[in-house]
Design goal:
Layout: H1 5-16, H2 34-49, E1 53-56, E2 62-65, E3 70-76, H3 89-104, E4 110-115, H4 126-132, H5 137-142, H6 151-156, E5 171-179, H7 184-188, E6 192-198, E7 200-209, E8 213-214, H8 226-242, E9 250-252, E10 256-259, E11 265-266, E12 269-278, H9 281-302, E13 305-308, E14 312-314, E15 317-318, H10 321-334, E16 339-344, H11 349-353, E17 359-364, H12 380-398
Parallel strand pairs: 3-4, 3-5, 5-17, 6-16
Antiparallel strand pairs: 1-2, 2-4, 6-15, 6-17, 7-12, 7-13, 7-14, 8-11, 9-12, 10-12
Helix pairs in contact: 1-3, 3-12, 8-9, 10-12
The chain binds (2S)-amino(hydroxy)ethanoic acid (HGY) and manganese (II) ion (3 copies).
Binding site for Zn(2+) 1: 76, 87, 178
Protein name: N-carbamoyl-L-amino-acid hydrolase
Domain Peptidase M20 dimerisation: 200-296
Length: 399
């Protein structure tokens, strides 16, 4: 099998043009947006040219299928609202190049996937979560984005392409290549990371409801200002979580919707996202209790009501030992002395796919550790090293 780095880079740059942000190399390609659908149609053409059978499932996961039992490679091509050009796309396009080279060489059988809504416009890694059975389709259909659009409405945009769900039995294993999205490899000067585990996550929307009122006439002591409730919650939760976490635990209030969001109105309500991640499922559960207790405490103290949305969750996931050995053999050959093992603090479709088959992941460095931002990037030499390790692992597994 002869992998072609030039062809791989060329495809990667072609894909970047679809939904290009115009700022740095960034992309704006959220799940089911025009740009996301255009990118999937482009990718379907590339898969077909590579000798793969194109298949869209009911949620918009796009597969390029090889004949017979195959190794599945891929990731996702949707992006964050402000996304980097490599997050997800790298694993899909590297998989495409390996599958194409394998097809040209007459084997081994390699299939490719681009999962839908990995970036969680609706849930957490929604497309692979539904395919793997982590999330029921009926439950997913009821999920809403921050503008109130339901998953059912969004996926209907792709209904004209959809066939049934792909039978996972045809795949022997899944390998996902990705950028690290953190600073470890960049700061140690390593080119390749072989992933040991992926952290777990919990994500929940919380709403404080107070009393909307006039910002000029309402005395301070009579206000029920929802922003003040969020502000108090934020200070208190940082304090209280600090007592039970490790240096690797993280939590984020990343989306805030203040209502009605006007200078001269005391805000009547606020809905915000509370997300927390850790490698230990028990700690995640303990953090949930602290979060609920703290929000209830703020509600009691301020006389405002609090509501909790549905809890989204993914458990921590360990990578398959045999697949890791294949990646390590590739890393030793391609980047001797410049690879190491590390955990993933970002989530990946691999967590869901692990319900169906053995999975593993490899990372290449992110310059400055930056991702989920337009200025995300990776050195070309590192992208190519990752591609070669992926190809080498596939060859190793088929021998
Ligand atoms: O947020 C994550 O870890 C993933 O990239 N969606
Ligand atoms: Mn990603
Ligand atoms: Mn991401
Ligand atoms: Mn007025």
């Amino acid at each position: 099998m002869k992998i072609d780095p030039e062809r791989f880079l060329c495809d990667l740059h072609e894909l970047r043009k679809i939904g290009a942000s115009g700022i740095g190399k960034g992309v704006i390609r959220p799940a089911y947006s025009d740009a996301d659908i255009a990118a999937r149609k482009w990718l379907a053409g590339r898969m077909s040219d590579a000798g793969l059978r194109v298949h869209f499932d009911p949620v918009g996961n796009l597969f390029g299928l090889a004949e017979g039992p195959s190794i599945l490679l891929g990731s996702h091509t949707d992006s964050q609202p402000e996304g980097g050009w490599l997050d997800g796309s790298l694993g899909v396009i590297a998989g495409l190049e390996v599958a194409r080279a394998a097809h040209e060489a007459g084997g081994p059988a390699v299939s490719v996937v681009s999962f839908q809504d990995e970036e969680g416009r609706f849930g957490v890694t929604t497309g692979s979560a539904v395919w793997s059975g982590q999330t029921e389709l009926q439950a997913a259909d009821l999920m809403t984005d921050h503008d109130g659009v339901t998953f059912a409405e969004a996926r209907a945009r792709m209904a004209e392409y959809a066939s049934g769900f792909v039978d996972p039995e045809q795949f022997k294993s899944y390998i996902e290549m990705h950028i690290e999205q953190g600073p470890s490899l960049d700061s140690s000067g390593d080119q390749i990371g072989v992933v040991s585990d992926i952290v777990g996550i919990r994500d929940m929307r919380i709403t404080f409801k107070g009393q909307q009122n006039h910002a000029g006439t309402t005395p301070m002591h009579l206000r029920k200002d929802a922003f003040q409730a969020l502000s108090a919650f934020n200070v208190e939760i940082n304090d209280r979580l600090a007592d039970i976490v490790t240096p690797h635990t993280v939590w984020t209030i990343g989306h805030v919707a203040l209502h009605p969001n006007a200078s001269s109105i005391v805000p009547g309500s606020v809905t915000f996202s509370m997300q927390w991640r850790d490698a230990d499922a028990d700690r995640l559960a303990e953090m949930e209790q602290v979060i609920r207790t703290t929000a209830n405490g703020v509600s009691d103290k301020t006389g405002m009501s609090v509501e909790f949305g549905a809890l989204l969750w993914l458990e921590p996931q360990t990578m398959d030992a045999n697949l890791r050995l294949a990646l390590e053999a590739g890393a030793k050959a391609v980047a001797p002395e410049k690879w190491r093992t590390l955990p993933s603090g970002a989530l990946h479709d691999a967590t869901n796919v692990a319900r169906l088959m053995p999975v593993a992941m490899l990372f290449v460095p992110s310059i400055g550790g930056i991702s989920h931002a337009f200025d995300e990037d990776t050195k070309e030499a590192d992208l190519i090293a990752g591609l070669k390790v992926l190809g080498s692992a596939v060859t190793h597994l088929s021998n």
